[in-house]
Model the fold of this input.
Amino acid sequence: MSGGPRLIGMVHLPALPGSPAGRGRTVEDVVAGAVRDARTLHEAGFDGLLVQNSLDRPTRERVDAATIAQLTAVSAAVKAAVPLPIGVNIVKNDGPGALAVAAAVGAEFVRVKILAGAVLSAEGIVHSCGWETMALRDRLGVDIPVWADVYEPTSRPLLAGDLVAAAVDAVDFGLADGLIITQPTAAASLEVIRSLRGRLPSTRMIIGGRVDASNVAQALDEVDSVIIGSALKRPAGIRGPVAPEAARQIADAARTGVRP
Done:
């Protein structure tokens, strides 16, 4: 499936001021860090970004008005800073909130962790938000693609064991436009995606993690997009700024197929 960003870098946000873990931080601090990371990724050669409130703690299934307002401010600043398509993801599973932010700032896609089904996670049992997300998209009159995780790695599916069925459910019952697969290795994610192509030939397929400079070219040979986060940091993880050299190595490897 063509169209849309291929090499997507995560803009991991620190805990927002309204989060218990964000005490002492200002929205201006968050905006400055997000814009810095966005510019680093753009200069390195990435062609898309995904903004996420990654470090809000404790996490919760849906967020409050303060978080929505802050994410809108941050996403708008990122959108204004770089000429790249951006996506929005709100942890843990606020699909309607992410869609509202995306519609307000002109973002190009949203990521939803549990669009269909239910999982056991740190927040307890987290239920699907497919109806609310798609109903809001219809009401707003926007055509923002919704990318749904299938067996995302920070949760445990309540009905485990049939990933293909879960993927089909996300598309058939959740109306997902794209599927994000994140297995323990990039090779395992590719294997799953190969098994899904025959069942869902028109659905965008994305690898959601475990991709770095050593395997990004191979991944992009077989999938529509890859999302890269932890490999952009030094040390690897979701904390701290994007490391320019790490970002350049990944983008160069994606473009040339040559490992650093």
DSSP finds eight helices and eleven strands in the chain. The helical segments are 27-44, 65-81, 95-105, 130-140, 163-172, 186-197, 216-222, 244-256. Residues 217 and 255 are 7 Å apart (CA to CA).
